[in-house]
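We modelled the chain as a single entity of 526 amino acids. Its sequence is:
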Amino acid sequence: MAHRLGCNHTDHPRIGRRELLQVGGMSLLGAGISDLLRLEAEATTPSPPAHLAQGERGGRRAESVIFIFQSGGPSQHETWDPKPNAPDMIRGEYGTTATRIIGARFCEYLPRLAVRADKFSIVRTLHHIAGREFRNEHNSCHYLLHTGTTALPVGDSNASITAPRAGRFEWPSLGSLVAYAAPTAQGVALPAVIELPRANLMRYPGREPGILGPRYARWGVDLAQPCRAPDAAGSCPNCFSHDDPNDPARAAGPSPRAWWNNSSCRDATFKLPDIGGTLSVPYSQLEDRASLLARLDGLRRERDAAPQRAYDVHRQRAFDLLFTTRPGAQNPFDIRQETDRIRDRYGREEWGQGFLVARRLVEAGVRMVQVNLRGWDTHQNAFRDLRGKLLPSIDLALSGLLDDLEERGLLDEVLVVMCGEMGRTPRISPISAGGRNASGEIFTPGRHHWGDVFPCFFAGAGIRAGQIIGQTDRDGGVPVSEGFTPEDLAATIFHCLGVGPDREFHDQAGRPYRMTRGTPIRGLVG
């Protein structure tokens, strides 16, 4: 029996891809990698039409997508849609800076991106149209954004969507749909969709393959050093918490008075995914094909009943994957192969080095790389942390990525999209008046969850650069021009990949569904 979404894993003996592709590397659970690939290939989900599998997608303008997820929801006011003429408690503490787009101004702490504004476009009026009880909550908005939908599955709440539930009709993630519609080219051993750099901390709703089935699941990889922040999903980069005290004597670190120790995460060095190591096969043995194949065969519990030729194909793919991920120049995860100049361009932090790995992965043929950026849930100490951590880091890392893609001739082949699951409230206030945060200090003001409007960054293949699309009201709270939904965001991504509006996919029972239910954002794409 194929694994059904909503069931408990213990109900069925069949091992799905998520149980095999574990965080930080592949746990083979007693099976060879060729067994893993065979299980994927023999999943009950039908294969995509032959012309898709052969890469003839017709009119595809983007070869791949880098999706940058600002987990927590960045403030529109402190990024792409400042309101300098609004009252103090809406305007905020920051000034603005001019851009290369006439009449458009960004937050003053995005100077590098401001002078590159002719290389990208901003859509200011994404919004959620789900009920009020859904549009302002992380769990629900995670699902809506990452599946490109406008409603939760029937019967789900913000609380229930985080856990498996029998009978749930779960729409596939955007990544899974990309893996279906734009499979990797022949000879590319890596999975179609990879998520980094901290998959273990990002178990959010909407990232699963849903009704598409486990064959199209993403590969979540842990590359960064261990993070021991009190709020690990709300800290970044390398490493802080919004609960950090304003008392310098209690600052995070190894000192006796520190309220927590962030030393484990201060090293931005990335580790490599441990694939060959889980087989107990030294990389030196990978040079000897016969030795590797003999070892893999020795791990097999039973002989595959498929024709020998098909078995050899899967076994060769396993070999290729192992070879691709051994240390060295051919390993896209091994950023030690990059020069110091390139690594400095991106920034020696978790975000910048994650962007660099993403560039190497799309060069290696991966169709979609999602880079998760934690820390945008700025309920408190918002202006301290945005000015001191978040904005300078994204300004350096994202401008470095754009420059590097352009210099390598990849900006015309790679679509870059960046947004959070929601925006922030127009009005500034403490999350709890008079309350205290985890470090014991009185809550300081910030902005809170707001799904009525949020911005999105677009650059690269298929995008008309140098534009500001959409206008919000004077307080930055709602669209006053056309608003766009996550369905439109999904349709825009698929349009740039050459996936037409009538494209269908089939669930595990063979039932057809239209892949996109929105409309590509007008003015942003041709």
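As a brief sanity check on the tokenised model: The domain at 43-275+325-514 is CATH 3.40.720.10 (Alkaline Phosphatase, subunit A). Confidence is low (pLDDT under 50) at residues 1-60, 277-283, 301-311.
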